[in-house]
Amino acid sequence: METAVRNGLVVLGTEARLQAGDLTLLLDLAAGARVLGATCARRPRVPLLDRWWCGYEAGGQVWSDAPRGGECSFGLGPARVTYDEASRAGEVAADVVAPHLRVSKRFTLYPDLPFVRVRYRMETTGVEGLGPGLAVGLPAIAFTDALADAFDLPEDRADDGLDLGGGLALPAWRAFGDTAGAFGLLLFAADRQVMSRLHVTGRGCAFRPGYYLAYSTNVVTTREVRFGLQHHNYGPVDELDWFLGAFRRDDLPALRRLMSAFHARRRPAGDGEALEFVPGVSPWGVSPWDDARRAGDGSTGGEADLLLPPTEALPRPWPAAVTFPAGGTATRHFLLPGAANAWQPVETHAGGVIVVARPVNRQPQYATVHISASPDAPPGTRSVSVPLPAGQLDVVVDVSPSVPLPRGDQHVVIGAADMAERARAAGWSVVAAPELPGGVALLQRPGAAARPIQLEPDLRGSYDVFVGVAQSAGIKFKLDGELDGEPYWSYVHAERADPGRSVDIQSWQLLETICRLGAGSGPHGEVFLRRATFDGGGLQLAPHPFVHAYTVISHVRFAPAPPPEPPRVFSGRRRYIAGLADIPDVGNDIGADALQEEAWREVVAQHARVGIDTVYWRVDGQCPDFHTRIGTVRYSVPRTHTLYSPRFRTYGRALERLDPLRIAVDEKQHWGLRLLGWMRTNNYSGNVVARFFVEHPEWHERREDGSPAPQLCLAVPEVRAHKAAILREAVAYGLDGLLIDTLRHPPMVGYHPVVVEAYKKEYGEDPPREPESRLLPSWVEQRTGERWERWFRFRAQFFAQFLRDIRAGLAADGYDRLPIHVRVAPTRYLHDGADLEALLEEGLVDAVVASRYVADPLDYELLFPVVRDRVPICAICDPIRGDREALLRQLQRDERLGGVGIYESNRMVHTAPYRDTLLEIARSMG
Prior knowledge:
By secondary structure, the protein is an alpha+beta fold. The chain is built from 19 helices and 55 strands.
């Protein structure tokens, strides 16, 4: 017997059907509100969900509220169905319990809102000292074949929202549809930080713990649950609040406009609330709480079918806040749900601050609040209460001391206020920035496309050029009148966060935090662009193309300086300076500019500009990074290491248009650089997978416990031949050598049956294993003793054979003297697959590049007694692992080294202070 519950919620026995717009969601009331399925009205008979569950792994056991295949079940209590007369909202709620988590679920329907609000509140229990587990999904959703794999779609159906300032932001959203985009599911959260927890998983998605650990391609920090630890990333209480709906192609624009209305924020106003919003962002013509509009009589000039979010669906109330200098002004806009009658403007004074509130166009539900500080207002924070029909609205006003523009003898300084007119004409925003020099900033939001600003300071002579960038991504620039003939736009990355703690998710930083000085940025928040000689020419400034960060300009400063040194001459150096250019990250660093050949030429040129004479240019990783005819060219996908990250699609698209290796080989001739092809030798665990790996599962490596590893076995001749052929193809472009890398991901050879059987034949015993101890391969110190060393040296012979095969192939191609370098971790090279003593004895290696492995110490001194001056040793500074620029100076002072270098040089040659330190050591090395 069917029992109806109003507002789109119908109960049939133990099942509840939630109807919201085009979405129908089916819940099992007897099993903790387990989601049974979902459909879209566009295709009502087509199921969209294969599974929806909340699950995690701890102690080797998987717990789930929708268990499958040996998983343990949560304790599933019966769901509760309620209906609230005041809000006219229906809701299904349930509690489920596992040994480590208590989960409270709420599925809420609102009148006229075509989305179901989904809330999961999780509390940890019984986890003291438990340690890490695995976040399977909290919750996770698997789609049926009716919805396309998100990674196979030609375009990203997603948006990361936008910070609007003043604590307001457009929500981020993700659309999952069929291949044609005709219908599907739409997911968003009013709080964009919630969406940073959502990971796209092919044909599905999952909310997982906050991602705060340092980036590493070797660990699954994106999915790890740290239970009961000092630095846990989950609990003791965690909440997710998001919305799910269905869409048809024609209705998606209207749904997106409705989602944009969720940028509004509730502000406390006595016993009531006022909602702050940004005019023009949402389709709000009148108050959504106007009964006349709801009746559709048009008395307020609005549209009767205008859908807006219910107040209780918006984030929790938070006071409005304004920051400006003495003499500054600001205007905020509010909706007043409780205002029914006309009201008169009101004015309030407090500590030199004046606040004036007025109704808009005689509509009592709309108010503008104008805030101003007198020129002599004292610095400090005050709370100003503004009487409104909704109640006393508190506005926190911070009068900040004004920050002057920098000064200096014969310096020429141009402030943002002086550039404002031409900046607005070029599409920039001009914003108040009281904490920056001059109090004004030019702003470009992520993904926008403002045009360059041309400055004409009418200078003659040599100057150091600085730009105030606050805490933005940096700046793109081109100087006129330079004498070195470099024709390209260049970049400066200015983020001052510790690069060892960078992450691969959207950095949704509040706008107010961008427009202030950062720690260590000096008194003016400047970056040094370049020393240049001007002859009446000028400077062009453009937004930094990084797609997830802001560009801010507070001022430009030209400081008199000695003439710039001529371009570096690298011949005659006794030691070399190297850069490891991990070129797929260029698509991340310079965004859409990576689609332009000029940008790739600039990357090569900038290496030479800072004194690097040897570039290890990546030519192969999971896939080749050039237009190979043998391997699989890296293709375009919107993910990396299971995280949804649209910026990484740029590199794949760039490869479709141009060949970075051809460009690099051509450009290096102009600068006299050595360009060596870098192969990250044996890893197929990332976001793109070579066709050869997919087609030959029989040659996949094995781990200690016998499970498959995302590698190919170098003991198989066909594998070595394939990888060697890719390198020979790259060398033919005109490379000066090769770098074979053992650090992505070690070991180079594992427990494939071919290797195990060969070892048993040689020594009459199985190789050592420690599968029961669950030790990671990285824990080398646990694998010591004669038996382990024998095993390591045995399997290293296959890596040595790989080098022999490369040399033989190069000799057949006429490159028999081409140098081959090998990159190793000094503390673990034998474990990783490189028997250095044997390789050097046979003459297979021409240089050893020493790098740290993840958190291991560099300890390059360990290599000196092994190498014994037979080949140069080049030690690498690794900013990604937290190495600071001081290490470069330290390495440069060690005369025993044949070279010094820097990892991710593609980025660091644009990043102060690493760029400037490289220049410093280059000058000292002649």
